[in-house]
Amino acid sequence: MNTLYGQAVLSCEQFDLQTLNRLFELADILQPVAQGKARTNVLEGAIMGSLFFEASTRTRLSFDAAFMRLGGKVSNTTGVSFSSIVKGESIEDTARVISGYFDVVVVRHPEEEAIHKMAGATNTPIINAGNGAGEHPTQALLDAYTIHNEFKQNGKTMDNCRIAMIGDLRYGRTVHSLVKLMSLYQNITFTFASPDFLSMPEYIVEFARKRGHTVIETDQLKDGIHNNDVIYATRIQKERFTQGEETRQPELSFRINQALIDEYALKDAIIMHPLPRDSRENANDLSNDLDGDPRLAIFRQSDAGVPARMALFAMVLGVDQEIEKTITPTAWFTPDSLH
User: Fold this and answer.
1) Start and end of every Aspartate/ornithine carbamoyltransferase Asp/Orn-binding domain (predicted)?
2) Annotated catalytic residue: which of 57, 87, 210, 325?
């Protein structure tokens, strides 16, 4: 049963394991389409509205590519200054108006509650592309899909996974969503490694614990790297710091480099990051000296965004059963993946 049919997708709490497995199955089928090696027009005639009130590169473009790879068309607006909100229009009125134009609407907004207000004002499916420091459900979908694929190659299962989340866990909406999604599996050990003022929100910690998982909280970077199957780094999001926090620096270094990985990481660990990463020297982020390490999965992770979002669109718009019968080969040049 497709529980996403006609639904807004606002939080990872909406997903169950059956739905997640179906989405992964569809994403596998759609991989050649995402890579341009095959095509489908299963959403021919459908239009997606893309409303990004906050900066984005990967999320916005991969949503657009996903919808167009399915045969649909996209209408974009980017930035508050380009919307009628600057004229005093409410977010609810904006939702009511645009819902008459599109079959599905993808929204990113800096305020956590805005996405919920929009979804409550329309019956058109709204997909959350990031709501402030709240959630980023489709990033979590592609992250979990990446872990699933990497584990499959390494002979591991999602159950009993040891995953470390490192860096800015307070404002990192990607890790908030990923904790909720990974909590669908059995016996997960979460290690949350962060500066003390950027620790994981307590409600996320309790979410995992109430579902029977182990949670370790630490301010020691090496504890996040040592003996974990997945090392998920995040950027320090200074743009979300509140007044008085903007000048704070982590007391300890949270830069993950090749030397630390070689000393503490498992030989088959997966190193992930939602991107963008801060590659500047001495930044508290994932160092680019890891770019030659096969454990670095960040670009395979980024590539997973298009098939994962294609699968989501197919399920929300109810064409998931039509996918396989509509796929045909393409004739144009397609480059081999570098990842």
Assistant:
1) 160-315
2) 87
pLDDT digits (tens, 9 = 90+) for 89-141: 898 998 999 889 999 999 999 999 999 999 999 999 999 999 988 899 999 99
User: Whole-angstrom Cα distance, residue 114 to residue 107?
Assistant: 9
Q: Which band of pLDDT confidence, cut at 50, 70 and 90, is reported for residue 333?
A: very high
Query: Class of 12-135+305-324 per CATH?
Result: alpha beta
148 is catalytic: no
Residues 6+ apart with CB under 8 A from 30: 40, 69, 307, 310, 311, 314, 323
pTM: 0.93
pLDDT at 56: 87
Position 257 confidence tier, pLDDT thresholds 50, 70, 90: very high
Reply yes or no on whether 136 is catalytic: yes
Residue span(s) of the chain under CATH 3.40.50.1370 come to: 12-135+305-324, 137-299
CA distance 22 to 38: 21
CATH superfamily of 137-299: Aspartate/ornithine carbamoyltransferase (3.40.50.1370)
Catalytic (active site) residue 59: yes
